[in-house]
Amino acid sequence: MGAMQAFTFLVAIAIFTSASLATNPGFQTAVTSNGLEYFAKIGLPLLKKQLSNIEIPDFSGSGFSVRSIRVTACDLPNLSLVPTTSGIKTSASGISLSVSAKWSYKKAFLKASGSVDMSASAISMAITALVKNDKGHFSLASNGCAFNIGNLNVKFHGGWAWLLNLFRKNIANTIKSKLNRMACDKITKLVDTQGNKMLQSLPIVTPLGRIAEIDYSLIDDPTFTNTYVSSRHKGEFRLQGKASEAPFPPHSLPGVTSTEKMMYLWASDYIANTAGYVYQRAGALNKTLTPENTKIPPGVPFCLNTKCIKDLIPEFYSKFPDQDIVLRVGLTKPPTMSIQPAGISGLLPGNIEVYARANNTLSYAFTLGVMTDINVTVDIEEKGMQNCLVGHANFISAKLSLADSAIGKLNIEVLQQAVDFLSSFGVGYLNNMASKGIPLPTVEGITLQNVKTQLGMGYLYIETDFAYQPAYLYTLYTLD
């Protein structure tokens, strides 16, 4: 990867980290000028290293050619990444380079060759990159380029060197003009080709286990202002390999109101609700409890045998005396979660089908309808190389009803304690699934710092700074 590719990569990671209004997003991000300034700071040594290894193409004209151009020294005092209404402007100035090369001249019967040392200073370059939505992916296009070599000194060695050095100022001006023209063509081409290649390789759909995946594709073009870059994403769970959308829309999310932090994130409760829709639809939220796979905690006056509820439901025991109980616990509808400024609440509408078992034969007894009420806390945790939203549910209450019975009318109120235990068990099962976290669409290697969260109407608001591992830049994209 050359220096211009490194330039492009810095723009790419800044855009993706930030990565507007026909459809509401499930997830929204904004990277501010402070965040881009941080990227420029960590990108400076990378770009300097890349400039030291840049491949400058041969050039020729009027019988004179310069080839095997090699950078021998480089100084890059500053790098800037700035949001503008036209895109992200990446610029550097005060660059100086020392270069060695070979030259030759051939015209008619005249021939000469040798080496040349060149030193360039007061070099400045700038490019503005505009990012758009291409079928959910980011697409990149250059939107203005400037490159200028302020001073160029040359000194020739070898045949005719004494003669060429007499005209080295004029020769330097010719070389400088040619390089100034060539540079922007090369930068623009790299942004439009290599930059798009990098952005297209960034994942917008992430598999989560064997059932679901989360879609963070763009829903429209990113928004560019003079203080931030923002992007709006689907933020939607779906069954793996199936692009069908949930049968309910996301709420609207607010716009950017502050730019003090490096990055701002908005996660709609639509994300959690589409997760519930997908997992319930796939049957992943159903569980069969048997005496063999269920451990009853000490102190709970309940067991999976009809003798344990002999006094509570005598009808059940009299029909199935001293038989194992098998419970099929599941949700009848997708769970729902609601984020409000006062807290996060959830409802789990489900059934408990109760069976008696003897000699490996199940006999249906009755079905309880259970509406479980929970509250939820959310945190951000690092898992591997990803930043994830991790939720934890707490059981509040369970409302019972008798949905069906094969053993007559029952007094289900006496089962409240047992159902509370089963509901708590179900909430624990959900917590185990939720502990894996929902990955946020940030670039690997970024660690969120100074995180603050706030609840809004239908969304979680996150403001944060971040740190980035520069080594990741060097190991991910090696020199060509």
List its salient traits.
8 helices, 22 strands, 7-stranded antiparallel β-sheet, disordered C terminus, 6-stranded antiparallel β-sheet, alpha+beta, 480 residues
Low-confidence stretches: 471-480
Largest sheet: 7 strands, antiparallel
SSE pattern: HEHEEEEEEHHEEEEEEHEHEEEEEHEEEH
Structural class: alpha+beta
Beta content: over 45%
**What is the number of beta strands?**
22
3D architecture notes:
It is a single chain. It is elongated and about 115 Å long. Helices cover 25% and strands 45% of the residues. The chain has 8 helices and 22 strands. Mean pLDDT is 86; it is low at 471-480. The strands form 4 sheets. Strands 14, 15, 16, 17, 18, 19 and 20 form a 7-stranded antiparallel beta sheet that branches. By secondary structure, it is α+β, with helices and mostly antiparallel strands. Strand 10 and strand 11 (228-233) form a beta hairpin. The protein starts with a helix and ends with a helix.
Question: Short description, anyone?
Answer:
The chain is 25% helix and 45% strand. With 480 residues, the chain is α+β, with helices and mostly antiparallel strands.
Draw up the topology in text.
Blueprint: H1 3-18, E1 27-32, H2 33-52, E2 59-61, E3 64-75, E4 80-84, E5 87-107, E6 110-134, E7 137-158, H3 161-166, H4 168-201, E8 205-208, E9 212-215, E10 223-224, E11 228-233, E12 236-239, E13 263-268, H5 269-281, E14 287-289, H6 314-319, E15 324-331, E16 336-340, E17 343-358, E18 361-383, E19 386-405, H7 416-434, E20 438-439, E21 446-456, E22 459-468, H8 470-476
Antiparallel strand pairs: 1-11, 1-13, 2-3, 3-5, 4-5, 5-6, 6-7, 8-9, 9-12, 10-11, 13-22, 14-15, 15-17, 16-17, 17-18, 18-19, 19-20, 21-22
